[in-house]
């Protein structure tokens, strides 16, 4: 195999190659024409590949091997289709054409799609394909002398593109310069006139750019304006804390971080404002970081408005919740009063008649006491629902609070130091004195329970003026503010949020109804005032009861009459109520008072009895009943019989729907309370 001896690396490879798997067989058996051609191509410096036989077995030299990349050395001695498969549809017609015609095929910069490095690419070649005769004169193979021109072709293509681009740029340079100048002027105008704050700092914290809005912002919060070239560190050198905060933010941006933050900035001696700021790294066209810039917006007013809106929404939700609870408790109180009326009336009857022995007397007295407690509970429910019967008059709050000092001291015990502070000349408030006394007592008991180990309780009253919107929705005007402050445990935010809700209590089971604060809250609202509470855990609680100032002279605080009064005259009483038990107990009371009682279960039934000839001297009617109300019934009978006496009885404690000139009595009631109402009615008549 001497023809392979001077073939370089490929020659050595051919000498050692196992040719048993190749269609060519061992080189010893090759034809003389094939040996001569292979010996010639191995010694050549040009890139040469020989495709021999009908299967186009590939044989090539050292110069050609790099051009087929990863296909070498497996392509050596193998059919071309195995390693030139991606371009075989292109290459095979060329090779078969040379074999058939014996004419040389030549081309310059001929493109071929190849996959020689693990990926597809288009390569370019100068090629010359010639037929090689075998020993018998037939075409034995095709000798391909090639030269890859890919790098040159691509370079020339890029050069032509660059030249075309250059010619285009030169042709439009003047226009582009004008357009760019106009664009920069427009952008500069926008940046300078926008309300947003825009500024840029270099890596040494010196201003590269700053617009007018940003300068104005610095003037507002620091009293001075930075300029391009100034140092941020020098600008805030006299305010170390502000400088530390500013450099902490800017250092992140100058390090290349992009982020958005909301910060409150400014010297309190000038102004404090909240800004939303977006920071970005500032880079040259080639990507070199040279600083950072921010775009900011003053969001102080927006955040304040959002806070006000959130507060208003929370107040609305709370008002809706309290209104719903008020309607519920008012309805429950009405039904409960209807249930209590016969209980209170019959127990009162038993006590007055002395029914039973000593044991029975004790049992009846205990039941009556429980009924009174239930009555008080209903009154508190009605107070929360703002439906309790009030008799507001001008009240000297200073005297009322001072007179309660001893009672409160005895109620709270010796461990509590009670201080009462009421200045002279305090204006009178429009209020129900009995209810105000109960409210102060309730607040004092709450304060006592919040100081199990003792403490200080201060009760004071001051004249206050509300000139603009108040936190408790008080309308502008003059008020008397009663304050009950303790040094007790205090309440956390969650407890404070539920403090005035009915039945909410932090006390143990059986130690409170949870209606104290809710009663005072309802009382204040019903009187046109408000209840405010300030508290913190471990710092005590201050409750303020705001009452509107009265413009009339204060009257005396009279106790409710206790004497048993009897009506001035009796006669026929028409008793109307849709509750049979209420009618039963009330009828018994009226009979004891000397009346002849005619009962009716509805207003329509009562009118029918009158139409049938009944002429009552007295009408006692429930207010709210199915069908016609008691008030409408009373007005209808009064229009026919002006001399008739009318008393409206209601389980609801408000006056809604009841004509002011009709006397009224609230359920439940005892016989003496009914007698007093009838006596006052007869006296007025």
Structure commentary:
This is histidine kinase. Keywords: ATP-binding, Kinase, Nucleotide-binding, Phosphoprotein, Transferase, Two-component regulatory system. One of its GO terms (molecular function) is kinase activity. It catalyses: ATP + protein L-histidine = ADP + protein N-phospho-L-histidine. The protein is α+β, with helices and mostly antiparallel strands. It has a five-stranded antiparallel sheet with strand order 2-1-5-4-3, sandwiched between helices. The protein has a five-stranded antiparallel sheet with strand order 7-6-10-9-8, sandwiched between helices. A five-stranded mixed sheet has the order 12-14-15-17-16. Helix 13 packs antiparallel against helix 15. The longest helix has 54 residues. It is elongated, with a radius of gyration of 53 Å.
> Main sheet, how many strands, which sense, barrel?
5 strands, antiparallel
Q: How many β-strand runs?
A: 22
Please tell me how large the radius of gyration is.
Answer: 53 Å
Biggest sheet: strands side by side, in what order?
2-1-5-4-3
The gross shape turns out to be elongated
Query: What share of residues are in beta strands?
Result: 15-25%
**How much helix is in the residues?**
40-55%
Name the average pLDDT: 83
Counting H and I runs of at least 4 residues, what is the number of helices?
Answer: 19
Low-confidence stretches: 508-515, 554-568
Domain Response regulatory: 572-682
Keywords: ATP-binding, Kinase, Nucleotide-binding, Phosphoprotein, Transferase, Two-component regulatory system
Protein name: histidine kinase
InterPro entries: CheY-like_superfamily, HATPase_C_sf, HATPase_dom, His_kinase_dom, HisK_dim/P_dom, HisK_dim/P_sf, PAS-like_dom_sf, PAS_4
